[in-house]
Every structure is written in structure tokens, then in C-alpha cells.
# Entry
Amino acid sequence: MSEREIGTAERVEHLDVVIVGAGLSGIGAAYRLQTEHPGRSYAVLEARDSLGGTWDLFRYPGIRSDSDMFTLGYPFKPWRDAKSIADGPSILRYICATATENGIDRHIRFGTKVIAAEWDSTTARWTLTLTQRTGTGVETRNLTCGFLYSCSGYYDYDRGHSPEFPGIDSFGGQVVHPQFWPEQLDYTGKKVVVIGSGATAVTLVPAMAEQAESVTMLQRTPTWISAVPGRDKIADRIRETLPQKLAHRVIRTKNILFNIGFYQYCRRRPEAARKLLTGLTTRILKDEKQVAEHFTPSYNPWDQRLCAVPDADFFKAMRKGKAEVVTDHIETFVPEGIRLKSGRVLAADIVVTATGLQLLAFGGIDLHVDGVPVRLNDQFVWQGTMLTGVPNFAVCIGYTNASWTLRADLTSRLVCKILGYMDRNGYPAVVPQPDRDLSERPLLDLASGYIQRSIGDFPRQGDRHPWTVRQNYLLDSVTTMRTDLRKSLRPLPIRQFERV
# Structure
């Protein structure tokens, strides 16, 4: 920890690399860093009091992955559990085990939030302003580092998206947001209404239906939902036949190819994909009218992220009569529940507002370069990893159409390659710079509401490689580590930095 003398100048600790965030990405980044650069000093700064990120924060019933764990897990640590689509506690145990087995947990500093980062070209260092919880309160400290790597994702851990609903103060029941689930919430025998139709809603409905009197999912418009096997039987046979590490690679490759193939099918043949998905849902529910009304969106598959439901649990809850889907708009809350524009009143003891995430770029760190604030939405992202105008700074951005970790691990490996490149050439700092003007596109190319609300605050991607954030792991896996760093990374000798 930094040594401080009260009332005198501060002696500031210096590290080679600082990783922000101790979630799935941050732990993976630390593994790659200490494996490929064992001599470098580093710390993982985590604002919360425990590791795991998303998988520790979200505690709502049924919390699970919506990607298979053979691709969401790390390539260097085989997934051993039976279920391919895993529950949140299992994923959290997996992340914790990875950190402990590799000694990464000794580098994590909990209760430590990075609120600002100032780059100084005269020293080629970042000065980080931290708030740190102590036994007596919260202290503000400084820390310097040579390279800053943000692995904090892109949504706000402190705020979810909560629209203002008319009449909500008149409601006589309890309103809950999934991001802040009350530990002691008892919904046994209660009437529950879940507002929303995304991954969180379709997870909550079957999980709560097991104990609640009834669960109604209230959606304004339908979402594409697809049943997937909770357990991968082919993967089970491969694991029975091959050695563990080889089996993991084979299963991972199989799933990557399938997921990319299905995504490309949806994008290139949207009408055929629509027919396939509605046909599968009709086969389960055996009600064409219900599928047409509640499960046939106006947009094409993968214009927004596809919701996966393992073993069709969501649809099975509907067939049992424990769950219902209503497609309508809210007129107002009333004491007994929610009155819809159609005039129907949904009775509720508990309303769950599964209304989405609030985006926040890279943990909300206030970035400055030589005293000048960095306007993120003026910058471009190179290789999905570094930003123009911001030296020695990398960000971890996962895929939107596949497992987050596939891109996250490639990014961490690329960061390690950049650090080695700087060492070999004696460069104290590098910054990406395009060879000619770029046409800008949004960083995340999905129509989902939670993305569209805030994407304007994020950096942009360009119109050509390596300035595009591709959604194709096959291409990225072949090209990322073969990147010629000399073509795009400009070295910045000390005292010769051009201002942003």
C-alpha cells in the first residue's frame, strides 16, 4: 500500500501495470500478464469488497450465463461442471478458483475505486486517484503506473436503468430491481409481475415460478427467445473420451464454430432464421397464436442479442400454467398492481423492473492527458483494445454476439504483446494512430435499448480493420496476435508527446 505522512508530501507507490476490475475479464487479464510478463509488478483494483464482478453483484433468482461455459470460461482452465449453461454461483466459484490457484488473489486490492487517471508525458506515467475504504472510512490516495488496463466492462455497477412509471408511488406492493435484489425477499405464494423481456426477465420468470403463486412477464414488444440444451451431451462424450485439456479445446472449438455459424445464418438469411425460431417455439408451446403475439419480434434475429433459455425452462413454466406473458403498455401503477393501456389490471404483490442496464464507459474513470480532459466519444478504438489520443491505456470489450471471454482473452494477450514490443524497442509509451481519416460507427452495433441509450458517450469504431470492433472470433483469432504493431502504434518518447 502507499505510505503516507499526514500533513506532508505523499510517497506514491508505483506499479508497472494496473488492472481495473476483478471480474471474469480482470482475473483473465492478470493470468495472462503474470504468465507472459512474470517480472512486472501489478495490482488488480476492485471497487467492491469481493471478486467476481457481474457474477458476484447479481443475486436474483436463477442468475445464469447466456453463453456456454466452454467458451465463456478461460481457455487455460477447462470447465469441469456438468452444465454447459451454468448458474451464477458456479461461475463465481470458477472465477475464485482461477484467482486462488494462480496466486492472483494476492494482487487484488478490494474496496479500491479508480475515480481519475492523469497521464503525464514528462514521466510517461499514469497517476491514479483512488478512493479506498478503510476501517475508519474512505481515504483518497494516489498510485502511479506505466500502463493502465480497464477490465471493468461497460455498465454501471451502482445504477440500473429504471424508467419512471406513472403512479408507482400508489402501488401497495414491493418494487425490486434485479441489480439490487433484496437478500431476504420472500415471494412464496405471491403474485409477481416482471417488467421486461430480456435475458434477466426470461431467467427470473421460471426461477420465481417454482415458488410464486403466479409470474407474469409484461413486455412492450416481443424478444427473440431460443431454447438451448442446459447440458451439452456431445461435450460429455468428448470429455469421457479425450484427456481433459484436449477435450476442452475440442469442445470449445465446436461451440465457437456453431455459434458463429448460427449468427451468420441469422444475419444473412433473416427470414429463414425467423421461421426457424418461431417454428421451434411453436413446437414447444403448441400454440401458433401465442407465438405470433408474444414471441415474434418485428426486428430480425441478432439485431438485438438473442435470449437463450436452457432446457426450455421459460416455456415449460408457461405450459404448466405457472407463468404468463402479456404484451401491452403500462398506463399506470395502481394500489393492487399495474393497469395496462388495454384496460386490464395485472394484480401484483411484487413488481420486478427487469428494465435493463445503465451503460458506463470503462468504470467512469475521469481520464486526462497532460492536463487535458479526454473526450471519449472523440476517440477511435484500435483492435478493440487501445484508444487514439490516450497513451499506455487499454480497454477490455467482449463480443456482443458470442461469449464475452473470447474477445477478452484475445485483448489481454494483445496487451501483453504490446508490453513486450515496448520493452524490446525501449519505448516508454505508445498510442494508436490511424494512417488516414476514419469514418465513425458506434462502438457496439446492436439495436438493444440499453445500448442505444448511452452509446454516444463511448469511443467510436472506424470503417476498416484494425479500427473496427469485429464480431467474428474466427477472424480475430487468426489476425489479432499477428498484428504488426509498427503500422498503427506510434511510440512517444518522454517529453515529446503531442497533446490530445
